[in-house]
Amino acid sequence: MNEKLKRKIEAIFANRVNNLALEEFKNEVEADAREAYSDYQVSHPRASEGEVIDHVLSDLGDLDAVIDMIAGETTNQVYQMDGKISCHEDTPQGDQMPDVIQNVDVNVYAGQVFIMQGTGSQVKVEQVFNHEHAELAVVINETPQQYAVTMPRLSGRGLLGLFSATTSNRFKNVIKVELPAHFKGVLNLKLNAGEVFMTDLVLQNQLDITVSAGTLHVNRLEASELMLTLLAGRAHLQQVKVQRLVKGTVSAGELYLEQVEAKFDLNIAAGVVTGQRLIGSGHFDVNAGSLSLDWQTVDAQLDLTTALGSIRVGFDSQASYTIQGYSTLGLIRVLRPHQVQSSTGNLTAQVGNDPKFKVTAQTSFGNITIR
Amino acid sequence: MEAELSKNLIRGHTDAIVLNRLNQGDSYGYRIAQDIAAMTNNQYTINEATLYAVFRRLGKAGLVESYYGDETQGARRKYYMLTSAGKQRLKAEQQAWQFTREMLDILMRDANE
């Protein structure tokens, strides 16, 4: 989708109470606007980007009244006609708040899951799903230390029924998990299939994410630490700030990072990792995959290592840094004016006159490109 | 003047128009807006914001249901479909419109014809 159009639509929804119904409505508007943009471009090939956007927004009309209508509804009211609602909100014993910090586990096997900040002090789960698929009701197990939300894993007849439902396009299974503001426990997400949206969250503790399949979207999130395991599927992290370390492995699939601020320690066995407007530093070890990173700011040393894969890093055109390269049979290319200080066996070079950080690049057989 | 449309009169039947479009097949806001513009040769248009409000109103009345399509790129398309109650309502609206049209034909007829 056109980024400017997307931002314009996001602006329409800005400063609104963030609830599942509004998030769904925004997705609906975006999907329609994307098609409208594409259609108008085809029918008016000479129209400028601004003209196309103006036309799309004009045809869209004034959404404020609909947004007000949705914002005024509770999620339950919105969906009562659509399907069953399973709503669980744990309550503290008497007036006592629990002393033990509770961790939250979310295991997803199907459907759409929205994880966001709620208004209460407790974890809250709501589910919307088809009447005919009662077997999909979310299971909640709670102990003083742990709050586990699990989508049932279907097999046999249940899986067949689910397949029929999804292929007939009438399948619905949406879960909303609300966390307290500044949640202090560990949030542990396991995405096995389906789609998860994590939006506008501030986590004071660690976030553990394992993606085995499906798609993960993380937008506007802060955490003290992020442990990421991408086995397959796709993970898209945008506007994420991690105080300490983003530590992870990518075995396959696609990891996309945009405006992520952290110290990184990533191991990429295979798959594709792309970063845009990154802030921070860290270590990236690529075995056979592909790594492409554009940095907005580097605040400490960057270590890049590859066996067979390819690494491409880009910095701001004004950035000044030193490069220490080591190659066995691979290739290290520097596509910026640089002064070679030593090239006997290894490469020692400097870009710019006032280096602020150091890049070490080590390759066995792969290619490393620095620009 | 004969081509001029009384848009307010049509606007009063927006719910029935949307129900009828959905009776031709499951659809969504942008597509219905485009269909209406094409069918009327752009003489009558409904913006998508209006259609979203109509969808919600019809949904609350149990006349339509929504579901997500299979698109994998970008935001997922939300489709609307008629419920059996929606089909009954559409039939009633069509009968009412038939009656209204017949009455208007009689009442607006030129006595000299």
From TrEMBL, chain B:
Pfam families: PadR. Transmembrane segments: none annotated. SUPFAM superfamilies: Winged helix' DNA-binding domain. It comes from the Bacteria. InterPro entries: Metal_resp_DNA-bind_regulator (IPR052509), Tscrpt_reg_PadR_N (IPR005149), WH-like_DNA-bd_sf (IPR036388), WH_DNA-bd_sf (IPR036390). Residues 18-91 form the Transcription regulator PadR N-terminal domain. This is Transcription regulator PadR N-terminal domain-containing protein.
